[in-house]
Every structure is written in C-alpha cells, then in structure tokens.
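ARCHIVE RECORD
Type: protein–small molecule complex
Small molecule: calcium ion
Source of inputs: curated submission
Record status: active
Notes field left blank by submitter.
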Amino acid sequence: MRRFIVPTIVVLAILMVIGYAWAASIKIVVEGEDYYSIKPSMAKAPSQVASGKAYIHIPLRRPHATTETGPADDGNARFRVRIPSAGVYQLWARAHWYDACGNSFFVVVDDKPATIVGEDGTYQKWHWVKGPRLQLTAGEHIIRFQNREDGAKLDQFMLTNNARYVPVRAEKHTPEYIIKPPKNQ
Ligand SMILES: [Ca+2]
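STRUCTURE (tokenized, with ligand):
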C-alpha cells in the first residue's frame, strides 16, 4: 500500500503547487480610455486598430519637438486600479510612438517619484513596452500617465505579478479591477 501512498502524495503536492501558481498569477489590463480623469493636452482618440477602438495620447504639436526640451504641459490621465493582493507587479504599456522625440510617458504611482516608460526604438507601430516593477499593497492605487513628449499614444497598460509573462498582442481588459468615475461627472 505504501508503494502507492508516497507517489500519490508527491503528485498531489505537485498539483497543489501548480494550482497555487496558477491562482496567484494576476493580470490587470486597463484600456487607456478607461481613465478616471483626464487633463489636457492628454486626449482620447478613436481608432480602428486599437483595443476598445480608442486610445489616449499627447497629440503631436506643430512643429513637433525635435529635441528633449521637456513637456509643454502636465497633461495626464489618472487611473484608479484595485490590486487584489500585495506583491511586485510588472507594468507594461501598449504604446505607439511617433519618433525618437515622441516615445515616452511619465508614470506616477500614488505619491511615488515619476518613472519613465518608453525611450525604445520601435516607432509608428503598436507594441508593448516594459515599464517599472512596482511594489504594491492590496487595495486601491492611482496610476498616472503624464506628458513627457508629444506624439506618444497609449492603447492599454497592464500590471502582472507574473514576472515571466511577456505580452504580444492586445490583452483582454479586466474591468473588475478598474474603478470608474460616477456617471454624469
Ligand atoms: Ca484602448
């Protein structure tokens, strides 16, 4: 009988570990247009190719800034996100950059110092950009995407506690984690 009990326990233990890892893997996907509040020059725009048929962006200025002169304003979008359990979350942004002078946002989480998302070399194409790793407590957090350069667009962003996950296409958004403003506001 013992011959069977030991392997059974091992198999059950492995299944429990797999189950725990599966259950503990959290993906929070927020559409750029699901902001709680927005301040110009950040603006919402329609799109046939963006997820949810919309994105937010810092519209191109004429003339487009061709040097790293700093943003013209503090236009931003604020998101209220409910984190289900405390942990380290990787931020990803599904972005579309105009050029080397239009390829980043500031990201501010709660009252922490701003970090930069972007500065990569993929232009004129929606793609996922790896952002900072964030230590987050369970509960509500405010995430702000803010103007750093004109010509930067945001379709979605994602927070995941699965450090190995690399998004490729647009992700299915998860409204259960997003706090929306009351209607008629
Ligand atoms: Ca979108």
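CURATOR ANNOTATION: The first strand starts at residue 27 and ends at 31.
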